[in-house]
Design brief:
Shape: globular
Order of helices and strands: EEEHEEHEHHHEHEHEEHEHEEHEH
Number of strands: 14
Oligomer: single chain
CATH class of the largest domain: Alpha Beta
Helix content: 25-40%
CATH architecture of the largest domain: 3-Layer(aba) Sandwich
Distance between the termini: 38 Å
Number of helices: 11
Strand content: 25-35%
Number of domains: 2
Structural class: alpha/beta
Radius of gyration: 22 Å
Largest sheet: 6 strands, mixed
Length: 304
Amino acid sequence: MNAVLSTRELRKSYGNQMVVDGINITLSRGECYGLLGPNGAGKTTTLRLMLGLIEPDGGELSLLGHAVPRYARDARLRIGVVPQVDNLDPDFTVAENLLVYGRYFGMNDREIEARIPALLEFANLTGKRDVRVPTLSGGMKRRLTLARALVNDPEVIFLDEPTTGLDPQARHLIWQRLRELTAQGKTLLLTTHFMDEAERLCHRLAILDQGRMIAEDTPQALIARHIEPQVVEVFGERAQHWAIEHATHFAGRFEVSGETAFCYVVDAQPLLTHLQARSELRYLHRPANLEDVFLKLTGREMRE
C-alpha cells in the first residue's frame, strides 16, 4: 500500500476531556476513506489534527511524507480542503474566487487562468464564470467550493460534510464528481452524517465514538460483520405492544425506537407471513445497511 496519510496512536484532549483517543488510520492512494460518528465523536478534531491546524498531545501523523504538524505547511501545498461551511468571498465572481485562492499556493495568474475552464466544467458552472457568489444557489456554492479545493491539483482532498443542506440532484452530482476524482487517483478523506453517502462513496471507513475508533472496514464488510442480512421495520401505534409480545419469536435481535420496531433477521419470510395477517400494523422489509451498523455501535440516543 502506498500510504499518503497515516496516524499512529493520535491523541488530543481539551481539559479533562479526551477528544481523540489513540486513533490509527492509514490512507492508500486513490481511495475514499470515511470518518463517521455522532456529534462530539472527534471527527472535526481529527481532521484539524491531520491538517496541522492544532497540535496533538501524543502520537504520530504523516501526510504525503511530511511529519505533521512540524511540516504541515509543506503538506498543505499538495492538498485540497472542502470545509463544512462554504467560505467563498461574496465580493468576487466565481472565476475570481478561484483566481485568488490559487494565489495562496504560489501559483501565478496565467497558470490559474489556464485551469479555470476545466474546474468550472467539472463543477457544472461554466455559464456562471462572471457571476458573483451571492446570486448562486446553495448547490452551486457547494460545487464552487469543491472546484476551489482542486485549483492546486491536490493529491489529497479533505471533505467535511460536503453535501449537507443540498437537494438530491445536487448531492448526486457531487457524488459523481467525487467518484471521478478517485478514478483519477486522488485520495479523499470524507466526513458525513449521511450513511447512504458513505456506503456509496467510501472504499473503507472508520466509525468514531467518544474519541475512539470503534470499527473500521469496507461498508459491505461492516454490514456483514455486525448486522443480520435482513431488516423488517414494523411501525404504527401498536408496534411497540406487538414487539413485546411477538418480536422474539421471529427475530434474533430487535430494537424499539418511538413507534417503530426494528427486527433483524436472517430469514424474513416467517415474520412477513405473520405480519400479512396483522392489518393493524404497517411494515417495511429491506436489506441491512450502514445506518443499521452505525446505530447498533453508537446507539440511538440523541447527541448534542
